[in-house]
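User: Working on a comparison across species. This one is Mitochondrial outer membrane protein porin 2-like from Salix udensis. Can you predict its structure so I can line it up against the others?
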Amino acid sequence: MSKGPVLFADIGKKAKDLLTKDYNSDQKFSVSTYSDAGVALTSTAVKKGGLSTGDVAALYMYKNTTFDVKFDTGSNISTTLTITDFLPSTKTIASIKFPDYNSGKLEVQYFHDRASFTTAVALNQSPAIDVTATIGTPTIAFGAEAGYDTTLGSFTKYTAGISVTKPDSYASMILGDKGDSLQASYVHHLDLPKKSSVAGEITRRFSTNENTFTIGGSFPVDHLTVVKAKLNNHGKLGALVQHEVIPKSVLTISSEVDTKALDKSPRFGLAIALKP
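Assistant: Here's the predicted structure for Mitochondrial outer membrane protein porin 2-like from Salix udensis:
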């Protein structure tokens, strides 16, 4: 793949990951195993609100092809086939979920030194079509996204965005929801390994005149432990601690408190991921 601009879906992703990834209020346990034949098996159990769910996923990799199958407790089977460079500078992704045959989707991603494009088509009788495009460089990228419903004969979404990437910072701005929302985010790395970072994100929704502002950060305590925290203008305070118990196996403890309603009990989450 070329070293050109990011895909449109990746604009703003760095800030979103720092402010949302690994925060949860569930109890989650997962075990992963790998074989020399290129097969990875992951079993996950989740307890949320007194309900328990789980799934088993198998990932097979061979040269430029990846085949992913997931079975869940709802008797659903999700399959995803990914082929890299089936055509030069492309990635093809085909997915379908059984027994919901109408959930099938085919996506083609194209990468160029100065642009990237994606086209996704639903595999049903009245397919919806999503198209994205970005132009620029790895440092600065301009992009747009559009979704079209062939049944209604109208656009379901159109979005535009820009991102700027520097060695020690990242900034993005996205105009979405058919022009009804504007989201701006910024990430600053406090050290060269990029292990200590702070981020801010503000979202403005014009139709309701509502603003949401979130700040947060990620900081290593030592080479095995990371602490993250975030706070938004609605008073939601979140924090988590991640500790590598044994190599590649991580314990995550997270919590969320509503500082404007301290009489309510805080929410806690626990996640254990074991890998060989």
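For your comparison, note: Helices lie at 13-20.

User: Helpful, thanks.
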